[in-house]
Amino acid sequence: MRFARLFLAVVLLGAANACVRVDAAPESVRVDMRNVDLHVAPDVTLHVAQLRGRFVPMGRPFPYLDDPRSYLVAIDTGEISLDLTSLNALVARSLGGDGSNLDDLRVSFGKDGTLGQRGTIDAAVNVPFSANAVVSATPDGRIRVSPRSIRSLGLPMTPVMRLFGLEMEDLVRIAPGRGVVTDGDDLILDPGRLLFAPPVQGRVTAVRIANNQLIQTFGSGPGAPVAAHRLSPNHIYWRGGQLAFGKLTMADTDLELVDMDPADPFDFSVNDWDAQLVAGYSKTLPNRGLTAHMPDYNDIPPTSKLKVKSTK
């Protein structure tokens, strides 16, 4: 009888512990963005036409906005574009170091919607090359860059490579885990791995080059609304779960960042947004939600940004 009671107590204790673990599981926070220029690094800006998804905590019980490594952005639906400067910066980071033999790779946008590539393959003999490629979405949600033509020193490389049974993947070496892999003559780009912090997770369903931008479509359709009320034209809005920033933690999060100058995109810095928060003002809503009205990051004087950083 004593053994039976002891066994029952152990089972009940294990069940209670299991319930605690489930209840304490990290909870994501829903997010809605519209018309935002998102500075994820000093040389990389993502233009978010619209996005709906979730901030998923990583290594913390809930996302901490002051640390982009504490969460990943899971995109359900959206449209995000990269200008040429940002795309070249990402390519340089992904192919930099000793793990790659593609040197000085630069990309450009063609008027016909193609992607130009120019660089050097560091092999037994350095081979300068240029290529003209088209972009498309892969079935698994990445970006495929498919060359139409490859030239070296002004001469077509493709016939010579075919003669020797070679493809670009036989000549090009790229370090693993950088977000770029070769597939025959093609390059496959993984948007989620190209960015270091915060990481991005989402399925690219279409990609195109237009208006000097590489435009990526995630998911299909607008997705389910995050907010029950009308949001400002240019905004970042979080709803539900717990979210922390500075010395504050919100439960049942209801936080909207509002662009004080909606005439142009909301210029927002992922790593230095507290300078924007200090330069703006906040309003508590009747439902205890919070609206923070903020100037564009590029409108804040550098001295003000340094002053805020010095207090951290």
Description:
- With 312 residues, this protein is α+β, with helices and mostly antiparallel strands.
- The protein has two domains: 29-79 and 222-234 and 247-310, no CATH class; 86-198 and 204-216, no CATH class.
- It contains seven helices and 20 strands.
- It has helices spanning 2-23, 84-95, 158-163, 168-171, 191-194, 273-279, 302-310; strands at 29-41, 44-57, 71-83, 102-109, 115-121, 127-137, 143-152, 155-156, 180-183, 186-189, 200-201, 204-210, 213-218, 235-239, 243-245, 248-250, 254-259, 266-269, 281-284, 290-294.
- Strands 1, 2, 3, 11, 12, 13, 14, 17, 18, 19 and 20 form an eleven-stranded mixed β-sheet that branches.
- α6 (273-279) packs across α7 (302-310).
- The longest helix has 22 residues, at 2-23.
- The radius of gyration is 24 Å and the shape is elongated.
- Mean pLDDT is 80; it is low at 1-24.
Number of beta strands? 20
Alpha-carbon distance between the two ends? 61 Å
Number of helices: 7
Question: How many domains is the backbone divided into?
Answer: 2
Helix content: 10-25%
Kindly name the structural category: alpha+beta
Mean pLDDT: 80
* Beta-strand content estimate: 35-45%
Shape: elongated
Largest sheet, strands/sense/barrel = 11 strands, mixed
Low-confidence stretches: 1-24
The secondary-structure element order is HEEEHEEEEEHHEEHEEEEEEEEHEEH
Radius of gyration: 24 Å
Give me a quick take on this structure.
This protein has helices at residues 2-23, 84-95, 158-163, 168-171, 191-194, 273-279, 302-310, and strands spanning 29-41, 44-57, 71-83, 102-109, 115-121, 127-137, 143-152, 155-156, 180-183, 186-189, 200-201, 204-210, 213-218, 235-239, 243-245, 248-250, 254-259, 266-269, 281-284, 290-294. It has 312 residues and is α+β, with helices and mostly antiparallel strands.
